[in-house]
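User: I'm putting together notes for a lab meeting next week and I want to include a structural view of one of the chains we've been expressing. I don't have a solved structure, so I'd like a prediction I can at least talk through. The sequence is below, exactly as it appears in our construct file.
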Amino acid sequence: MNINFVISDQIEAALRRKAAISGQELNEYVERVVVEEAEEELPIPPQGEISEAFMTRLRTMVQRHGVRSGHIDDSRESIYAGCGE
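Assistant: Thanks for the context. Below is the predicted structure for the 85-residue chain, given as structure tokens.
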């Protein structure tokens, strides 16, 4: 399927930067992003029937969102700090 659409110069520049960072040509990058986004809407297989294709989609989604590193203080004291105790 071919899809044609018009985007602003700023969006094109942003997409070109992201494509360059990922080591892809612009059209390859946009195709990958669109396909990944659409694949997220596909139905989840029944429990016990998780296919390799589903696991690949899941790993791709996890990689796309990245892993945050660093310390997060979720202690009770930090959550309620400043609440007038």
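A couple of points you could mention at the meeting. Helices lie at 9-22, 26-39, 52-65, 76-79. The two ends are 61 Å apart (CA to CA).

User: Perfect, that's what I needed.
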